[in-house]
Amino acid sequence: MKNGLKNNGLSLFFGGIFLLAVLGQAITGQAVFNEEQLAAGLDEVSLAQYLTSSSFAVDVSENWQSEYLQFLLYIVATIWLVQKGSPESKEPGKEGVESDEEQLVGEHANDKSPAWARARGWRLTIFSNSLAATMGLIFVLSWLVQSLTGHAAYNEEQLRNFQDPVPWLEYVASPDFWNRTLQNWQSEFLAVGSMVVLSIYLRQRGSPESKPVGSAHDDTGSTG
Hints:
The chain is mainly α. The protein has 2 domains: 1-52; 54-224, no CATH class.
């Protein structure tokens, strides 16, 4: 039990604070929603009603899709692009998908390699791209949920203001949708870019996201 907690501490930590953040968002989001309901002369909603509302779903999904887009782009971009001096980058000259020997696939796999890494053909192709594919799928699904729930929330607002609802395609092309989307994207891109550049010159002792404290600024790909 103790070793299980220790060996999975990072995932348990982030899983725990994720649930706390969702709970906090639900409680504060319900309060804001009910303030708007009262201001419009409508009844308040319970927490359960708010959790199943389009307003809550769109707020959650628009953040999820931007996070998974960030990771998808970073995973794919770091195959081909490098940043000299950053531990988040491969060394210059090592761009690309690397050789089978470097990737421990096929006949170069070892006893601990996953079964599909030892295979050839479609299984190796799928497994070799499974991380980016999964991140991309989650991004597309969460983006779709954002568009559908955002569309529902937008039309509810339209009806409260005695205006006509709009079709889904019209909403997806609207400033409201892209304002919600781009304000999340720009913050994610800024955060990733800052991490890449700041990690060239700054250190965090003991973190695998940082170079060793004594490493030169132009050391690339090394971690502490």
